Amino acid sequence: MSPPILPGATVGVLGSGQLGRMFAIAARRMGYRVHTLSPDDDTPTGQVADLEVKAPYEDLEAVARFARQVSVVTFEFENVPARTAQVAAEHAPVRPSGAVLHTTQHRGREKEFLSEAGLPLAPWARVRSLADLEAALATLGCPAVLKTAGWGYDGKGQVKVARPEDAAAAWERLGVEDAVLEAFVDFEREVSVVAARGVGGAFAHYGVIANDHANHILDVSVAPAPVSAALVDEAVALARTVLELLDVVGVLCVELFVTRDGRLLVNELAPRPHNSGHLTFDACVTSQFEQQLRAICGLPLGSTELLRPAAMANLLGDAWQPGEPDWAAALALPEVKLHLYGKLVPRPGRKMGHLTALGATPEEARARVVEARARLAPTSPGRTGG
Ligand code: AMP
Question: Are residues 296 and 175 in the same domain?
Answer without folding.
Answer: no
